[in-house]
Structures are given as structure tokens and as C-alpha cells.
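# step 3/5: fold
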Amino acid sequence: MFVVVDDHPVQRSKLVREYIESQAGKLQLFLLPPYSPQLNPDEQVWAHVKRRVSSQFVETKDDMKRLVLGALRCIQKLPELVKSFFRHNGCLYALM
């Protein structure tokens, strides 16, 4: 299994390295370069959510939470939209 992750220190920790080694080659991490949001499909998701939420009136943290969760649930129901995040120029590597 290949897992692409951002360059957060947790993914480079001793515990993670030991776990990966214990998988005898069945799991391999690929680290994205430091600060490379354009290469991370998750960032495409958050950009989409921000566009939806930023046009709404928000008064409280609960309003914000409701809007963000609603936007994420909407994404879950739209597989073509999810696929589009991986077709973003910087994320094409994920289609291979």
C-alpha cells in the first residue's frame, strides 16, 4: 500500500518508521515536499469548503461548525466532485 502524506513531523517519527518497517514492505509512505498544498488533494477539499462557507453569514462557532459539516457532507454525496480534487494539476500523481 502506498500512502502519500504531508511532511508533518509525526509522519517522520520513530514510532511511524518502526510501524512501517514492521509491515515488511507492504506499506510505503511518500512524503510531499514541505509546504506544498497544491500537491495535496485534501487542500482542494478545504478550498472548496471555504468557498461555500465564506459566502454565508456566521455569528457563532456553532454556525461555522454547522456550515463546514454541511459542506463536507455535500461533498460525500458527489463522487464526481471528489474525483475532481484528484484531477487538479498538482494532484495528478494520485491518479496513477
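# step 4/5: annotate
The longest strand covers residues 2-5.
# step 5/5: archive (pending)
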